[in-house]
Amino acid sequence: MSAQANAAVVGVATTRKQVFAWGIWDWGSAAFNAVILTFVFSVYLTDAVGDDLPGSISATSWFSWSIGLAGVFIAVLAPISGQRFDAQGRRKRSLGILTGLTVLSMVGLFFVKDDYHYLWLGLVLLAFGSILFELASVPYNSMLRQVSTPQNIGRVSGFGWSMGYFGGIVLLLICYFGFITGDGDTRGLFGLTTDGGLNIRFVALLAAVWFAVSAIPVFLAVPELPPTGADPDAAKAGIAESYKVLFRDLRELWSVDRRSVYFLAASALFRDGLAGVFTFGAVLAVSVYGIGTADVLLFGVAANVVAGLGAISAGRFDDRVGPKTVIVLSLASMIFAGVVLLFVSGPLMFWVFGLVLCLFVGPAQSSSRTYLARLAPPGREGQFFGLYATTGRAVSFLAPTLFGLFVWLFDSDRAGIGGLLVVLALGLGALLAVKAPDKV
Question: What is the tens place of the pLDDT at every residue in 123-182?
């Protein structure tokens, strides 16, 4: 690739306005991740809409299978999508289309009433939204280099991650106090009826508007990059040809710089462990450490606060000592806190060491993104972040499987922590063998 092409890809947009506009998309994305997929609408779908589903298969099983099927589509489509976004110079356009379609899928959830006949509509919309959202994350992550320089990429990535955490906190609190809290036929400060799940359906509308409005600044402030012209085959390829280009590039990558491949594998392991911490944290809080059900939301808010603060703080260390050091220290600290949690009891100990765990989740996630951005050849960020999504999906079964296995083997929910620690340790060990990105 020519020097001119390199200049067109790295460090084009580095103003505070552009960094803020880019980070606000992360702020808005919490509307889908935290509200729709994790804490609110998915619970409504499985516990309310599908609670009287006839047959032997539960709504929760159908939900997990639909999200699993969505993961297959993401794994298959993400790398060639990112590759095409790069070659055609359509990162921002693709981000806009995919974000818009994600918002539309969220709007569609308003029509999912509290009746098991609507379960299938909800499952299709959630699965469809998951695919679109993950594909949108590919061009979004690829734009990291456009809004940063090699000297501040860690801080910019940390800012984006923290905005996602803080956006989730604010929106969850609005949803909780505005639409969910209280008893009886009406809920929240807005007094919406629970008849037909109307209060939760309005949460879906609010989340859609939140995401749509938050996404606007990045399209106004961050410029679209022109095609680099480095790979005309990728720009013109159909789906089948795109895979040929992908496999060709992977063979070339393996022969030229294998550390990118090694890092993708290592990051897939430890990212699955990071996801497991948040996935099973609430379960452990209630069943093992005696946290009240009503207090779990408070712990979730606190966990997101410390994770966001950790991401911001670690960004500066990322720029000084490199992303590998930040990730290694974060994973080691999480493993230490997890080992302590295996032996302590009571709500206080969970609050202390549970928050220590969460403090290091943000830095590990943020620096993982900058690690790959530093490794990706200029003009191929989309392809690399597509592979990043694919490898993450490839091992996403590991943490849940080991968590359940340890619980079953030792007949104790507490033992599930050991399963998560194994995944984190495997990721840490794999990462230690990967050479750090070159200093710029």
Answer: 999 999 999 999 999 999 989 988 998 889 999 999 999 999 999 989 989 998 999 888
Listed residue (379, 378, 377, 422) closest to 399, CA to CA: 422
Beta bridge mates, 187: 192
Tell me which DSSP letter residue 49 carries.
I
Neighbours of 20 (CB within 10 A): 16
Quick check: helix, strand or coil at residue 186? strand
**Residue 56, helix vs strand vs coil:** coil
Q: Compute the half-sphere exposure of residue 178: CA atoms within 13 Å on the CB side of its CA.
A: 14
SS3 of 283-294: the string is HHHHHCCCCCHH
Cα–Cα distance measured from residue 406 to residue 387, given in angstroms and rounded to the nearest whole number: 30
pLDDT higher than 60, residue 425: yes
Q: H-helix or E-strand containing 122?
A: helix 119-142
Q: What is the pTM of this model?
A: 0.84
Residue 265 CA to residue 398 CA, distance in Å, equals: 13
